[in-house]
Structures are given as structure tokens and as C-alpha cells.
Amino acid sequence: IWLGLISQMSLSCFVGKSIFLSPMKILEFNQFYFVFVFLIEKPKLPENYTQETWQKLKEAVEAIQNSTSIKYNLEELWKTSASIRSLPKNILSRVLFLKKIDKCWQDHCRQMIMIRSIFLFLDRTYVLQNSMLPSIWDMGLELFRFYIISDLKVQSKTIDGILLLIERERNGEAIDRSLLRSLLSMLSDLQIYQESFEQRFLEETNRLYAAEGQRLMQEREVPEYLHHVNKRLEEEADRVITYLDQSTQKSLIASVEKQLLGEHLTATLQKGLTNLLDENRIQDLSLLYQLFSRVRGGVQVLLQHWIEYIKAFGSTIVINPEKDKTMVQELLDFKDKVDLIIDVCFMKNEKFVNAMKEAFETFINKRPNKPAELIAKHVDSKLRAGNKEATDEELEKMLDKIMIIFRFIYGKDVFEAFYKKDLAKRLLVGKSASVDAEKSMLSKLKHECGAAFTSKLEGMFKDMELSKDIMVQFKQYMQCQNIPGNIELTVNILTMGYWPTYVPMEVHLPPEMVRLQEIFKTFYLGKHSGRKLQWQSTLGHCVLKAEFKEGKKELQVSLFQTLVLLMFNEGEEFTLEEIKVATGIEDSELRRTLQSLACGKARVLTKIPKSKDVEDGDKFSCNDDFKHKLFRIKINQIQMKETVEEQASTTERVFQDRQYQIDAAIVRIMKMRKTLTHNLLMSEVYSQLKFPVKPADLKKRIESLIDRDYMERDKENSNQYNYVA
Hints:
Helices cover about 60% and strands about 10% of the residues. The chain is an alpha+beta fold. Helix 11 runs antiparallel to helix 12. The radius of gyration is 48 Å and the shape is elongated. Pfam families: Cullin (PF00888), Cullin_AB (PF26557), Cullin_Nedd8 (PF10557).
């Protein structure tokens, strides 16, 4: 016979066959009787009643367990233990109540361990042989659950107290976490954790964070709100580790994510994404992505706003004509920025990479042709001699970045036209920074667009290399012919189909230059009969030897500057009109030439009256007092900015080339298919062309081919075309 004291406030447990006269409940397990007695009435208690009561009960239990006589009447002991049950409701706070419940549970567990050890043999033999019988431990848990925790008032007060402590902790107060861990472990062991606690706990969590999310979205900026959400998620994860059951984790975290994030996805992005991206807030963007990745549909919503941002920001760069000077550099900087954000913040998510490419392709082609033109000019600025911004390695990286932007443009033929024009200047005037860099860029274009795209550009390089060989032969020819002269002539032989079209300008060359031209013409046509040479004076340049009071100098100048300077060997002063008649240089070109010689940094001529511009009636004379620290001085020709007409002319040539390509594509398709409907023909033409075409322009080309008898409309179906052999 044994008695275990399992609660200091509400439970006494006896085993035996004693009969009590007070109300009782009896639960029979085999031949043992567990007797539980409850008394609800509130007794009047003297001072130190609790300590004395527990001492009395302790002595009684020990006497029973030692099989010795009991000093107290059994009914008195029963009333004493029963009266203790009313104490917590009246004098203990919720926290103290929880501590008493916990103490009751801990004592019960210790006592059950001791009792189980006594009946260990029966527990492992007799009980195991009878599957219908519970183990000693399970029996103890069932009794505690049935007679203590199943009491509605006790259970309600226990759960309320636990929820109150958690609420206080969420509000920033310090609480006894070990107490919560013990109590929640008790509920789990008693198998009432989910039905009694978890459901209410999750409801309270939803309610709390729903209200908190609504309030803080109004009060706080997005970065601050995101850090708060992350903090809340970390706190809830820590609660699971510290005192909640692991089974609660998924539902708890999902609840917090839903209320603080899922309900505010669009609002969060609308309120703060643009600022985060504009200000390049890397850490905050990383946190944003991490949090949105936790919520179903969060990444997709972020992806859509990401695309919209890139399109909107990129459009402001491309559409505004005032930004043309800085467009390409801004595009490169923007591309670097979004690449960094994708790599660092968005975990290199392939969806964001592809979305970025599509967005760039969309906004950069909103303004047809201009981005392609400006990219070509930007490449020219990087490859031109005198560019000291970067080393060879840095230049190579720059070109790689430019090629990435180049891939997005539709009008690659526009780029090719302007690039070819600038490349010609660099090659012919010797302004190329590096032949290796030029060939590297050419290789990149070939890899990106194919051999057909770069065939003419490669032809330009071949012409320059062949010209060097021809000049070696020409010098040998001059020596063999024993032709006198102190002028060294260098000629570049250009294939007209490879190079840009230049308008020839007839100027009056000195007799010695004319003589050398004729000598070279005789030499060249003697080797290549049937060819025709056309001199391009606009591309010529010379090195002149000059003598000033300070001493001798060499002047590196254009052919037009040369013609003007040579006049001052024949006279001391000339007017604008006199120089124009003598040289034959076109008026606007002559004014720029004189401006470079008399108004620039190296003023080898003086102008009367002094001013920055050249006007009618101005007089020019040689500046004998000219001084310069260098022996060879390069006098730059004042370049007239590319006019709208010149740009339009280049664009028009591109448009004409496109018409030829469209015509060729239509004829190829019709020759192969013989008969096609209008829609199918349009579709196939679009798939073959490498540049954008408007339907109206394509329709005009079809009509043009019909007029020229390459194809015809079907007589029975006007929407169908037939090829004409």
C-alpha cells in the first residue's frame, strides 16, 4: 500500500481499501483503488496554516509508507488536503498560479518515477504481457490529466496564464521562460497541447500581428518595417526553440509571415521599392528579397515591380533628348547597378536576370535608332587616341560592358553605319588608341552578329594593311625611277564598298603635290589596270616644317590647314576672300580651318580684328612670335559638330539598306514558297530580318515588288501572293 502526494494545492492520492465518509471519486485499476477527494468550500485559515498543513500531510504520508501508526485522524487529513484547493483562486496571481501548477507537475513526475521504480518488475513483465493495461507512467499521466488539467477552471486559467506571459514577452517584457517551457512540455506530455493550447495560441498570434501589420504599415517606412518583421520572425523562431513544441513552428511562422508580409506585399513594394532601388540600399533589398521569398507569391510580385522599375527608370534615360550626351554611360552605370542587386540581393535568381534583360530590351528600343547611334559614338570615344581614362585591361572590360548594352538594341545596322564612319576617321587620321583594342572590338561584334555584319569593317582593316605594302613598293619605285623631291607621300588605297561615302571636294593643290599624285597614279594603275582612283582631300593630313623667331618647329596639320599655311610662303597677309580663292576650300570648311590656326591654342596665324570667330573681311598673317615647348605640334582641326543633316543622311542610308534587305528577304521567301497569304509572308519576313520593321513599311515593299513584277496578287484571292519567275 502506498500514497503519493502529487499536488500541493488540489490533489491527494491514496491506494488501498480504506473507506471515507466524505464525497469521493474512485477509479479502479485492476485491484488497486486511487481515491481523489475535492472540496470547494473556502475554510477559514489561521496564520502559517499552509506550512503546518503540508507538514502534517507529509508526516501522514511517511507514516503510511513506513507502515507505522498515523498521529492524525484520516478524516481530518482528508479535510486538510481538500481545503488547500481553494487557495490559488483567491490569493495567488496568475503567475503564481502557473508556478503552483508547475510545482504540482514536477512533484508528480518525481513521485511517479519513484513509484515506477518500485513496480519496475511488474511494469516490464506483467503489464507488457497484458496489452490492455497501461504502464505505471502512463497511468500517472492519465490521472493527472483527468483530475487536474481536465478541470475546466484549472485548464482555462493555466492556458490564459501561458498566453498572457507570451503576450507580455512579445510586448518586450522579461518573463520566466523556463516556467513556460515546463508548462508547455507538461501539456505536450499530457497530449492536450494542440487542442487546449496551440489553437488558441495561433488565434491570438493572428489577431496580434494582423493589427500590428496594419498599424506599422501606416506608421513606418519600408526599411524600418522590414527590419521589424525580420525581428518578429526571429523572436517567434526563438520561442519555438526555447519553450514551444516543435510541431507549432510551421503554423506559427506561417501565421506571422501571412499577417506581416503576405497581407502587405503590394503595399510594401508600392511604398518603398523605388526608393530602395534609387538609393541602392543593398542590405535592405537583400532583406526584402529574403522576406518575400518566405511568402507564397512574394517573389513573383517582387519580380513584376522589378520589371516595372527597370522600364520606368531606363525610359527616363533613353527618351529624354537632353540626356543624349550621357545616355550610354548612364545605361552602363544602371546595368552595373541592377547586376549588383541581382547578384547580391536577389541571390542571382535566374528569373530576375531574364526579366532584367527583357526590360532593358523594351525601354532601350522605345526610341528607335538613337541609342544605337550613341553607343557607336561612345565606343569611338573609348577607342580614340588620347583616351587616357583606362589601361588596356580596363578598356577591354569597358568594351565588354558596352557589348552587353549593344545586345539589347534592335537597330544594329544603325550602330554599324555610325561605327563604320567613326572607325574610318580613327584609321585614316591615325587616331586609333590601339590596334589590338580595335580588333578586339571587331571580334566581339563578329561573335555577336555574325561574319556578314563585320565583313565591311574587316575590309577596312585589310585596306589599311594592303596600303602599307603598296607604300613600300611605291618607295622602291621612286628610288628606281630616281625621282627628285623633298616631299614624302603616303597614300591609303580604300575600297569604295567598304568605307563610308565621302563627298569629294576639289581644292587647289600646290604643283609639287599634284606632281606626286600623278607619279603615284602612274605607279598604281600600272600594277592594277582598269581601276579608278579618286582623291579624298578631306581626309588628307601633312607634317610641315616651319621656322619662327624661336626656332624650327614641325606642324602636324590637315591638308586644308596645309594649303592655308603654304600661302604665307608667298605673302605676309591675306584676307578671308583671298585665301578662299587661292585654295578652293569650301566656305564653312575654310572658316573652321582658319579658326583652328588663328584662334586655337596653337596660334601660328594672327587675325585682325581679334575674335573667336572668323568673319568676312578678316585679315590673316603669319605669327612669327609663335612659341611652343614641343618641337612637333599637332594643331587640331576644329571639328564641326555632326549636324542634324549629317545624322539624317547616315540614317537615310541605313533605311535604304534596310529596304534592299527587306526586298531580298521577300523575294527569297516567295521563290521558295511560290504562293503565300499576306499574314504568312509577313510572319516569315519578320523572322528573317534582324531589325524592326513597321507593318506599313513592309506593305510598301511588297507593293514595290509587285510593281516591278517580282510577284503578283492572286486573281481569285487578293490576300494571297504568287511568285513571278
